[in-house]
Amino acid sequence: MTLLGTLWLAETIKLGTRTSARATLVALTAVGLFGPLWLWFLTHAGVEVNGGDLGAALDVCAANGMRWSMIVRGFYVSQALWLLLASQSLAGELQAHTLREELLRPVPRHYVLIAKWAALSGWCLLSMLAALGAGGLTAVLLLPGEGAATWAQVMQGAFGAWIAEIAFLAFALAVSVATRSVAGGVVATLLFLMVDRATATALWLLRTFLEGMPADLAPTVPSWLTLLMRASPVLPSNAWSAWRELLDGASPLTWQAWVALAVWTLLSAVVAERVFARTDVP
Known about the structure:
Elements: H1 3-17, H2 19-44, E1 48-49, E2 52-53, H3 54-57, H4 62-96, H5 99-103, H6 109-142, H7 151-179, H8 182-211, H9 223-229, H10 236-240, H11 244-248, H12 255-277
Antiparallel strand pairs: 1-2
Helix pairs in contact: 1-6, 2-4, 2-6, 4-6, 4-7, 4-8, 6-7, 7-8, 7-12
């Protein structure tokens, strides 16, 4: 086995021994069960909306139950868990002075980063497969098989969500190595997401205002302002959510968001590598 493969295996084994990592696996598997169980409950609760049964207004099928689970997973649930694991994997070991043991050997520092990211990505894939397996089986047993949602959309969405989550893991590792603190990394990421969402809201308000302008005033709008109005898909949180288009079967895809996802991931990797290369490991 190559040096990088050995490091990845060691990081994976280390990750599997952590209570937080096992709890994450259980939590995300439980999220996979949520959609089918909740959809089944709504269709059997006898809830009426506008004089009709709520179940008649919903797409009651196995694939849609799993689709709901994916939506809940993507609503900051998985990001919060991966942020914690990434912070523990790097900043936590820096604080505990255990990372020095890995660097005593003649190992390139970027190999250590790659191994940690790969181990977390593998754990992310395992959690996705566990959620799909448990949630899919529950959905098939409890819900009808035919509906508007399709299993092809669910699988495409799951693959896209995994890509987005490992991209977020790269960002989380960059923040972790920059702050050198688990708590600091969590706070810094929360502040970053707050600014990101505030920016997205401002761009949405700008777009609403410009699109509502009278046609005779449209030529007076500066070109740079029109370009800024269309910048929303490249924001990090929108790029990390681009997988929803695959889940919903949207066509065409917003290519700007997918390009931004690749750019943010590459930028995160470069920042993590550069900062870590200059970090004094106690």
